[in-house]
Amino acid sequence: MEVKERLFKSCQDYVLERIDYIKKAMEAAQAAANEEGKSSAGDKYETGRAMMQLERDKNAGQLAEAMKLQQVLSQFSPQQKFTKSGLGALVETNQGKYYLSISIGKIVFDGNEYFAISPGSPIGVKLSNLEKGDSINFNNKVYEILAIS
Questions:
Q1: How far apart are CA 91 and CA 108, in angstroms?
Q2: 60 and 11 part of one domain
Q3: How far apart are CA 35 and CA 139, in angstroms?
Q4: Residue 39 domain flag
Q5: Which of 46, 61, 69, 126 is the 20 to 30 A CA-CA neighbour of 119?
């Protein structure tokens, strides 16, 4: 499997694991709310229900964010080739290798480090729409574009 395909799969796996975790947390919160209703009375019951509602709302927000990440991944293919950097590109610089996709951080394959970053992140914005041989200055470091795939 090509490096970009492995990076893409790592991003997909991250999002799917996050969605699964959030859905389980939502189910647990719902079960707790149901139990709270059975075993409590009065103000304690109302407080418990309000807390469970806050938990469900928080989980719903996290699920919406995870679904947005999944949507971003659906916008490109790891087989796509690039001459200019953009969403889905692997940008190799003298300072590191950056996969413009979603922000999940460092991924290591076969001893090589890659950074999955959002094109909307500060470094992602700087690395977007560049060609091999271009350079940028970010955090007082010069990043020279060595390859884009």
A1: 15
A2: yes
A3: 52
A4: yes
A5: 61
Residue 80 domain flag: no
* pLDDT tens-digit map of 58-110: 989 999 999 999 999 999 999 999 999 999 999 999 999 999 999 999 999 98
Q: How far apart are the first and last CA of the chain?
A: 15
Q: What's the CA gap between 54 and 61, in Å, rounded?
A: 11
Asked whether residue 103 falls in the same domain as residue 133, the answer is: yes
Structure tokens given for 48: 């418990």
Domain hosting residue 109, numbered range:
90-148
Cβ neighbourhood burial of 40 (10 Å; 0-12, 13-18, 19+): middle
Host H or E run for residue 141: strand 141-148
The number of distinct structural domains making up the chain is: 2
